[in-house]
Amino acid sequence: MRSEPLSYLGDGAGPWEIYLEQVNRVIPYLGRLATWAETLKRPKRVLIVDVPIHLDDGTVAHFEGYRVHHNTSRGPAKGGVRYHPEVTLSEVMALAAWMTIKNAAVGLPYGGGKGGVRVDPKKLSPSELERLTRRYTSEIGILLGPDRDIPAPDVNTSEREMAWMMDTYSMNVGRTVPGVVTGKPIALGGSLGRRDATGRGVFVTAAAAAEKIGLPIEGSRVVIQGFGNVGNAAARVFHDHGARVVAVSDVTGAVYNEAGIDPYDLLAWVRETGGVRGYPKAEPIPQAELFAVPTEFLIPAALEKQITEQNAWRIQARIIAEGANGPTTPGADDILQEKGVVVVPDVIANAGGVTVSYFEWVQDFNSYFWTEEEINRRLERVLRNAFEAVWQVHEEKRISLRTAAYVVAATRVLEARALRGLYP
Ligand SMILES: NC(=O)C1=CN([C@@H]2O[C@H](COP(=O)(O)OP(=O)(O)OC[C@H]3O[C@@H](n4cnc5c(N)ncnc54)[C@H](OP(=O)(O)O)[C@@H]3O)[C@@H](O)[C@H]2O)C=CC1
Ligand SMILES: O=C(O)CCC(=O)C(=O)O
């Protein structure tokens, strides 16, 4: 395998710098389209909003929110909304850019967008969260619309917040607009299968990679960082296909059982107690040891920059399937490539969520809803095709799967950019 240039970025770089480095690595493979590559390095538009709300005690609190459209050459902006105490503008810019790449890599007719509010949602009551969500939606409303920008869930947001967003937008425009948001409750035009779609897609793409290297799923070990929407769904789908989930972590701690952890049982424990810590059918391990656990599959499903130059050497997995966005730094990518670990990059591994969001959007437009079986079947087909296209580029050009995914995606985005031209 020809090696790509070593990263000049240390682990100190933020998500936006990491994204820029990923783009730099693809430019040599873009041919004539390389002249347009600067397009990928700039967000199309950025909105910073002040979100003031009354707290339950009557005082007023202000939160900073963002909505970024990274690129809309191929269609409306699409991407989730994150609530987290460490959200920053540059993080949301990177998350929006990864949506551009992801939507193009999978062939969805969308550009890339993302939103976020810097808030610790664990410190707000449900009614404070509802006021925050509604005010944020109104503030970013100038960018939203079913043919302009369609939010969805991300870290610490779920069907509940999507229902509030859909309702707020609809009240502001004076009619019900289900297609302005995806990941909604089924009763409001949500899609069957969306809740587990990202985790299911992690499984589908990891299984496609496993086939390529002759690794069976049955009996294989799986380690998962993050047991939220993505992590717990991935754990259940791997378990349902005969794999053994041996270690899981969340912010409360990490637990390990060589004989296997039943993710359904662990989920019941987490719902009751608030975290994996103290789970009685597994032993506690330090969170920092999670990535060193011997395993066939490692699924980072928490936040960015978890696999770094500091810990990549200790990873023993054969396949890493990135449930999270941006979990691996470029320096860690180089180390993993040298170790022969197959890294299925975020932009295809976690694309199951936005793929079923696309199905939801299409169903909302048609007011005609598909069965869950139909959705899962179509999801698998879309992701398998995307994986196959990326694998071919990876083999032909002898580059990492991440750079191969960027070749596929950047070519589509920049072709659209070039065809559209520059002037209104
Ligand atoms: N939801 C979706 O459809 C999609 C999500 N993603 C990406 O997947 C990742 C997870 O998102 P999602 O599952 O939706 O978010 P959730 O909020 O549902 O879950 C996040 C999980 O990560 C845990 N976590 C946070 N920090 C750490 C840490 N340092 N170590 C271990 N665990 C940690 C949280 O723990 P705790 O609950 O204890 O706070 C929680 O279990 C994000 O990168 C997101 O962008 C990508 C595509 C689609
Ligand atoms: O479902 C969507 O529209 C986007 C989900 C998302 O934010 C992501 O894929 O990172």
From TrEMBL:
Site keyed Important for catalysis: positions: 154
Keywords: NAD, Nucleotide-binding, Oxidoreductase
Domain Glutamate/phenylalanine/leucine/valine/L-tryptophan dehydrogenase C-terminal: 191-421
Binding-site residues for NAD(+), renumbered to this chain: 198, 229
Binding site for substrate: 78, 102, 357
InterPro entries in the cross-refs: Aminoacid_DH-like_N_sf, Glu/Leu/Phe/Val/Trp_DH, Glu/Leu/Phe/Val/Trp_DH_C, Glu/Leu/Phe/Val/Trp_DH_dimer, Glu/Leu/Phe/Val_DH_AS, Glu_DH, NAD(P)-bd_dom_sf, NAD_bind_Glu_DH
One Gene Ontology molecular-function label: glutamate dehydrogenase (NAD+) activity
Example of a GO biological process term: L-glutamate catabolic process
SMART domains in UniProt: ELFV_dehydrog
CDD domains hit by this protein: NAD_bind_1_Glu_DH (cd01076)
Active site residues per record: 114 (proton donor)
Similarity comment: Belongs to the Glu/Leu/Phe/Val dehydrogenases family.
Protein name: Glutamate dehydrogenase
Organism for this UniProt entry: Thermus filiformis
